[in-house]
Write a structure and sequence with these properties.
alpha/beta; 8-stranded mixed sheet; 6-stranded parallel sheet; 14 strands; globular
C-alpha cells in the first residue's frame, strides 16, 4: 500500500509545483493513473494500525502545553489559553525574539512561566522532547505543519495543528500513520466548526430538523491581497510564495470542515471524487508588478505563475450527496464562508449574517396553482428555533466566548472544548482522519485543475472504517466541567 501511495505522490506531484497540461487526452490518461493508484489503497484495511476515530486517551487533570509559532494565530492562542482552567503553558517557541518577548510580557503575573526556545531553527524539537508537555500547539507557516506534528506525536505528545494540517497527500498519510502508531491525538484547529451558526445547524441536523442533508456549500472568500503582499504579516513572505506556485483551493478546510460534520463524513459517508476549476489570475501578478516599480523588494515576485483568483471545487460523496467549495482571497467580494446546508426538510444559509433557516412547507404538487414556495423564517421564528436547538456548549459558554474573543468566540470555544475533552478522557470532535481528509482537498484540487478539471478520487484515510465510525456527542453529558476564567 505504501508503494502505491508513493506512486500516487509522484503522479500527483503537480499539487506541489503547479504543472499544467494543454493536452486533454494526456490529462485524462494521467488522471486515470492517479485514480488507479488511489483506488488500490481502498481495499487494504489491514494497514490501519489502530482506529483513532472515537479514541479516548487517558485523562489529564492538567494539560501541559507547548506552543510552536507565535505569529498571527499563535500569539492569540496563547492568550486565550490563560482563560481556561486546568492548563499550564510550559514552553513557547518562535525564532523571532520580539514575538517571544511580547508573549512573556503578557503572561507576566499569571501562573504561566514558560521556557523559551528562540535561538536555533530546530529548537522546536527540544520543546517537543520535554517531559513536562502533554500537548503541542502548532501555529507556524503551512509547510511546517506536518513535520512538526509528526515529530511531536513521535515524542508522545498530543497535537493541535493549524490549518491546513498537510500540503500533500503523502503528508496526509504521514499524519494518519503516526497518530495510529503512537495513539496520540492529532487535531487540526478548524475553528469554523465552532462558529455559533455552525454549531446550531449541526445540532439541528442531528436532531432531524433537516431531514436528509443532500447538498452543502462552503468557501473561503476573504480579501487578503494587501496582507499577502505585506512584508510584515507573514514571515519570509511564506503565504505569497504559496499563492505564487500553487493553483487550486489552497485553503479548503474552513469551507469543508463544518460541512463534513453535518454530512457525517468519515462516520457513515465518505468523499468519493472531485473536480476543480481555477480561472486565470487577473490581479496578483499585476499587483506584484506595480509594487516592484516602487520597491525592488518585489521584483522576484514579478512574472510568477500565480494561482487563479477564484477556484471552484465540486465533490460527490459515496451516498450521492454533493458539495461545492470556493476559494477567493484577492477579489473585492465581501468576506464570507459561504456556508449552506440543504436538506429534504430544511435549508440553512449563514451569510449574510446572522444566518437564515428555511423549512419545507406542505406542498401539493398536483395542485400546482396552490403550491406555496418555502421561504426564510422571520427573525422571531428564527429566534424561537435557535432557542430550541441551541447546543449545550453554546448555552454553557457561548456568550463568554464572544467576550474573550477570537473570530467571534469560535476560537475560545474550540480551545475550551479540546481541553475539556483531554481532561475528561473524551474523544476529540476532530480526529486525524478529519485533519487528513479536509487538508487533502488542497492538493487534489490542484491535480484536477491542472488536468482540465479532470475527475480525481479522494483517498479513504479511514480505510473503510467510515462505514462503522460514529460522530462525537456534543451534549457535554460526560464532560463540560472545565471552567473559563
Amino acid at each position: 500500500m505504501k508503494n502505491n501511495r508513493r506512486d500516487f505522490l509522484r503522479l500527483a506531484g503537480i499539487a506541489g509545483i503547479g504543472l499544467a497540461s494543454s493536452d486533454l487526452m494526456a490529462g485524462n490518461a494521467a488522471a486515470i493513473q492517479i485514480n488507479h493508484s488511489i483506488a488500490s489503497q481502498k481495499s487494504d484495511k489491514s494497514t490501519q494500525q489502530f482506529n483513532m476515530s472515537g479514541y479516548t486517551a487517558p485523562k489529564l487533570e492538567t494539560v501541559r502545553i507547548g506552543y510552536i509559532g507565535l505569529g498571527n494565530r499563535g500569539s492569540a492562542a496563547v492568550i486565550r489559553m490563560i482563560h481556561i482552567e486546568g492548563t499550564t503553558i510550559n514552553a513557547i517557541c518562535d525564532l523571532r525574539r520580539e514575538k517571544v518577548d511580547a508573549i512573556t510580557k503578557q503572561l507576566s503575573g499569571t501562573i504561566h512561566n514558560p521556557a523559551i526556545y528562540s535561538e536555533k531553527e530546530n529548537d522546536w524539537k527540544k520543546l517537543c522532547e520535554r517531559d513536562d508537555i502533554d500537548l503541542v500547539y502548532i501555529a507556524t507557516p503551512w509547510h511546517l505543519h506536518t513535520p512538526m506534528a509528526v515529530y511531536a506525536m513521535k515524542c508522545n505528545k498530543h497535537v493541535c495543528v493549524e490549518v491546513p494540517a498537510a500540503l500533500t497527500i503523502d503528508e496526509c498519510w504521514q499524519l494518519v500513520e503516526t497518530s495510529e502508531s503512537t495513539r496520540r491525538h492529532c487535531m487540526m484547529l478548524e475553528n469554523v466548526c465552532y462558529g455559533q451558526f455552525n454549531l446550531l445547524t449541526l445540532n439541528m441536523v442531528r436532531q432531524g430538523l433537516f431531514g436528509e442533508v443532500i447538498h452543502c456549500e462552503g468557501a473561503y472568500i476573504h480579501d487578503l491581497m494587501f496582507g499577502i503582499f505585506s512584508k510584515d504579516k507573514y514571515s519570509d513572505m511564506w503565504r505569497l510564495k504559496q499563492n505564487a506556485h500553487r493553483n487550486g483551493n489552497l485553503y479548503p478546510t474552513h469551507g469543508i470542515g463544518a460541512i463534513c460534520q453535518v454530512m457525517d463524513i468519515n462516520r457513515g459517508d465518505k468523499l468519493e471524487y472531485l473536480v476543480s476549476m481555477s480561472g486565470n489570475d487577473f490581479m496578483m501578478e499585476k499587483y506584484a508588478r506595480e509594487l516592484a516599480e516602487q520597491d525592488s523588494f518585489y521584483k522576484p515576485y514579478v512574472g510568477l505563475p500565480y494561482r487563479g483568483n477564484i477556484n471552484t471545487t465540486s465533490i460527490r460523496t459515496s451516498k450521492g450527496k454533493t458539495i461545492m467549495l470556493q476559494h477567493d482571497v484577492t477579489t473585492t467580494r465581501p468576506k464570507s464562508l459561504g456556508y449552506m446546508v440543504s436538506g429534504t426538510k430544511a435549508t440553512a444559509l449563514q451569510f449574510p449574517e446572522p444566518g437564515r433557516i428555511s423549512l419545507v412547507k406542505e406542498k401539493k404538487i398536483i395542485e400546482w396553482q396552490k403550491y406555496e414556495e418555502s421561504g426564510w423564517l422571520s427573525d422571531d421564528e428564527f429566534k424561537a428555533l435557535e432557542e430550541k436547538y441551541n447546543p449545550e456548549i453554546l448555552k454553557r459558554i457561548g456568550e463568554l466566548a464572544k467576550e474573550i474573543g477570537g473570530h467571534g468566540g469560535m476560537d475560545l470555544l474550540m480551545d475550551w472544548r479540546t481541553i475539556d475533552c483531554l481532561r475528561n478522557g473524551l474523544p476529540l470532535d476532530q480526529d486525524v482522519y478529519d485533519a487528513a481528509l479536509w487538508s487533502s482537498i488542497g492538493p487534489l484540487s490542484e491535480c484536477s485543475a491542472a488536468y482540465r478539471s479532470g475527475v480525481v478520487d479522494v483517498p479513504d484515510f479511514t480505510r473503510g472504517f467510515w462505514k462503522t465510525n460514529h460522530f462525537v456527542d456534543l451534549s457535554l453529558e460526560n464532560g463540560g466541567n472545565t471552567k473559563v476564567k
